[in-house]
Structure formats: structure tokens, C-alpha cells
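fyi for ur records
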Amino acid sequence: MTNWSGTHSVEVDRVEEPESQADVEAAVRRAHAAGTSLRPAGSCLSPNGLSFQSKGMITMGLMDKVIKIDAERRQVTVQAGATVQAVADALRPHGLTLQNFASIREQQIGGFIQVSAHGTGAGIPPVDATVVALKLVTPGEGTLTLTPRDGDRFELARVGLGALGVVTEVTLQCVPAHRLLERTFVATRSEVTSHHARWLREHRHLRYMWIPYTDDVVVVTCDPTDLPVGDGAEAAPSSGWWGGGGTGGWGVVGRAGRRRWTNGERLAPLRELLARTGGATDVDMAGLTATQLRDALLALSPLTKSHVARVNQAEAEYWRRSQGQRVGWSDEILGFDCGGQQWVLETAFPVGTRARPSGADLAYMEQLLTLIERHQLPAPAPIEQRWSGPSSSLLSPAYSADPEAVFSWVGVIMYLPTDDPLERSRITAKFREYVHLCEDELLPKFGALWHWAKLEPPAADDAEGRGRLRRYLRQHYPVDRFNSLRRRWDPKGILASDFIEACFGSA
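which gave:
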């Protein structure tokens, strides 16, 4: 089994593929009786191989039914193997949708909640906070149905990392289906600093894509609209480049006029750079998307800072030509192409509230970009920054008891645009250097925590590194309560893995 980015793979001694609740219960009983591993897995999208366990796994892909849609309560109950896209499609005829979406739709709902996945929106929590009930098959206590009435047990199980039981059913709180007006424009760093607090306060969804070695930041805002689905051209443009009167902004008006670039013209900066540096012809580049062109460019010299900077500058020009707006349903608009295979470090940290922002989100980015430039890291674009509301799930990186709290999520990447093992290993080594700089200089200062699907624990023979990781996690999470529940629900540790033990030790 190999994850989506090709960064982790595992040969598994035994894989269970249940088709029903009874199948899961039987598989868990067998594994518990024998004391053999049975690690739950979803779509295996996590860059860190969070679900992998060579001694035994259980995959939920055949349990993918939408069980019930309660239009009156605006709730949906699904099997854990149902994908996000399938659930969204099933909800549409009922006038409902999920509260938020991450970048892609292939995640299974079980994995989606267990790692506290998030979309974007300072007033919208991570997806686990929308769980109102879940069914969990535990080795120690059998099948449990948990709701908020179960207190800490429920709050720990919602983001349980597959270590407390096998999630088989989830009930999610939904919202009415709605259209969004998305505006995309390019700002300078100083313009972002000047307008950030207002943008965060006034827009339902806000996303930045910072482009290292340029002064450019791609800003994407999304807000509810009654406009029909289409490109949004009929919407009245803002009076100023960055908007006025709470309307937000879109960069086509005020600076660049109303010119509409063709798709070929938008891609031209990337295509021209590839033709000059790689000798590619129009035939070679025919049909390639922007992210595929970026991969082709980076593959030429992925660790040369000057080359990566030129690619970033070409990408910035691509975004300048892509400024504009469009209208679509929320499940269509909120997704985006996050590029090819990649290493990712994503962290979340508190940034005050929308009414009282702390400024930590922009301070983090300023220091991160300075770190990149000081160490001349070959950091590709984009560095994505999003926001979410809080979660009451005790192991969510966005946990807070303050319902007004806001968290910023920042992801740094290095792409793996080649299949050559030696080149991939060199990129991996450079990425680890990048990660260690962030972990040493930024995370403690901002109280940042790893997205669970993107934390790469130290190797088993690095006792000192694992000790540091466990101490840091104990500062921010109720590890003792989590381990106590692990001992109760999984007394033989059949759901554990090297990842779980690296973070929490043996229960």
C-alpha cells in the first residue's frame, strides 16, 4: 500500500476489507483475541502514512453507504468509507451540504474526521466539530455509539487517530446548500498587512497563497451569493482594487481593467519558462495544467534556489492573469488543485478572534518567509494559509474552549516531480531541513501544532527526538486521558502503530 504522495508505503501481512458492521466487529474480535495488529485505514491520502501498520490493517472502502439524511435536523449519517464527494452529492437533492471542505474530495469520512481535517473560514470549525454522533468498534468494550452526552469520551473519539477504535458510522451536522462568489486577486505583502484584519472579519472564507522570493500574495475570498452558477461576470465589481464597503476585492478591477486572459495567455509565463529552460515544445506542453507545468519546471532543478525562485515568479504572473471571480456551489468552489506528489508540513496556531486579532498569523508568515530567504531554501509556491474556528475535540490542533477563537493553518511544501529515487531522496533531505527550521524556530514561539496527517515523527532509533515530540504534545494535549482511554478500549494495543507510539508512547 502506498499513500497518495508516494512518500510512504507499506507491505501488510494481513488486510481486512469488511462490507458490514458485523464484518468489522468480527475482525476486531479476532484480532483482539489473537493480539494481532489491526490498524484502521481510509483512503491513505495522509502524506505521513498515518494509517499504515505492516502487521495488519482494516480498510473501510467497501463500507461507503449514505445511511440516512434527516432534512429536518439537517443531519446525515454515513458509513466511514463514504467519500466526501459522495456525501456532498447525496446531500444536494435535499438542499443540504457539509459545512466545509478541504482541498480535495477523495477523503473517506472516517479519516476526514479522525485527523481533524479543515477547510477555510474563521467562523467555521474543523470537520470533526460537526460530528454529532459516531459508532466505534473497540477491542476492549465492543461497539460504542458516542454523542456529546458522553463528554470527554466523545471529544477524544472524534479525533482519535484510529487509535481508540474503528469508526464505522458518523453523523454530521449539515447546512443548507449554498452558492459562493469566489474572488481571486494578487496583493503585495504590505497590502495584505494593511487589509488582513478586515478581510478575515468580513469574508466567509479566506485563503492566502504566499509566493516565496516575490512580493506577491494570491488572495482568495468566498462569500454566499444569490447569483446563478457561472463565472460571476454579472456581479458588480468593487469600486477599489481591494474592495470597499465590506464587498472584498478582486484584482481585475482598478489595476488591470476588465481584460479577460485566455487560458493559453494565463499559462504563457509557465510555458515560456519551460521552453527556455527545458527545451520543451508546444507539443510537449499541450494539455498540461498550471500545476503540471510547475512540476515539469521544478523537475529540471528542484533544489536550486535561483531556479525555484524563477518558477515562483512565473507562477505569480500566472495568478495575475487569473484574477477574477466565479460563482458555484460551495462543494465545487472550495476545492482546489494542490499540485502533484509532495512533502507537506502543515501547522495550526491560535490568532485571537476576528473581533480581537492577535496578529500572530501575519507575524508567523513574515518570520517564515524571512527564514526561507535567510537560509536560501529552494521553497516552491505556494505557501498556503487558511483559517478555521475552534473545535471542542480534545486532540484537535484547533482545540479551544473559547467559541470565538480563530486558528491559522499554514502549509509548506516541496514537490516530488520526478520518479528518480535518488532525486526524490535529495528533495526529501532538503525538505527535512526546511521542516526542522520551522519546528525549531516557529512552532514553540507561536504554540503551533502539526496537522495530524502531516506530522512526521522521528525515527524509532531517535529516542531524543521522540522524547522532545512527546513532551511538546503533552504541553498541548491531554495525553494522559487519551492513553487512559486507549488502555480501556484497546488493552492489547492492536490499533496502535509506530506513529501512535512515537507521539504518545505505549498506552
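Residues 263-321 form one domain. thats all i got for now
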